[in-house]
Amino acid sequence: MDNQNFLYLSLGAYIGVSMRLEIVSIVGNFLRDQTIPIDIFDNFIGSFVIGFYNDRYKKRDFSSHLAISTGFCGCLTTFSSWIIGIIDLVNSEQWFNCIIHLFIGTTVAYSGFKLGQNAETEFKFPFHQKLIYLAFLKLIIFQVLFQRWSMIVTALLSPFGAILRCYLSKLNHKDFPFGTLMCNLFAVWIAEALLISKIHLDDDSNKIINSVLKGFCGSLSTVSTWIKEICTMQSIELRFSYYWISLFLSVYIGLVIFQNLS
């Protein structure tokens, strides 16, 4: 990856995580029901955007593709947070709520992607690379003015997760996205281990862990790319296999980690 691609991916990741944190902060003030994923809106928006752009920049403008698809959408959406919510419901034996949580998370992301695909055929947004710089500058000025220091620290960790996900995506096979699967699984397992370790740590250490959870793990995992891959697979059998393998392994190993470390 050259310096330009590295920069655009990092900027897109920073913007995506910052937007996710803002949305979750707002939604968290109103949403108290555990059956509804806390990241429902950012997963919808990220899936919509990745469906709307539909790799239109991948060949003629790879830097923009990295910024929008891998950076912004990949970091705005998060697989790890969604699955951690399911693991919590399983641990408390809320089986019905777990099914609802799973159904809503899947349906919202799928609907967002399909709506984005349909919108792409109707509208052609004249995207320009300078918009990435402009969005980043406005965002960082806003964060500094309102002293969102924890958000800045968290967002600064996002490029590490996004870059690792970008490199692991090279393991994706044309018939099965092994790289994305590894990213989502590793992010969930790391997040579950960190959440358990928080119990034994002080407040300052917990703040650091929260930043790693939301910044690094949230950016390493992705719903937008995951749902895009499911929707664009040629084989229906592979679609179902990829979907259930992702869910089963992330939840099962997450529960094993919880049982062994708690």
UniProtKB/TrEMBL annotation:
GO terms for molecular function: fluoride transmembrane transporter activity. The chain crosses the membrane at residues 66-88, 94-113, 133-156, 176-196, 240-258. Coiled coil: none annotated. Pfam families: CRCB (PF02537). The keyword Protease does not apply. InterPro entries: FluC (IPR003691). Belongs to the fluoride channel Fluc/FEX (TC 1.A.43) family. This is Fluoride ion transporter CrcB. It comes from Paramecium tetraurelia.
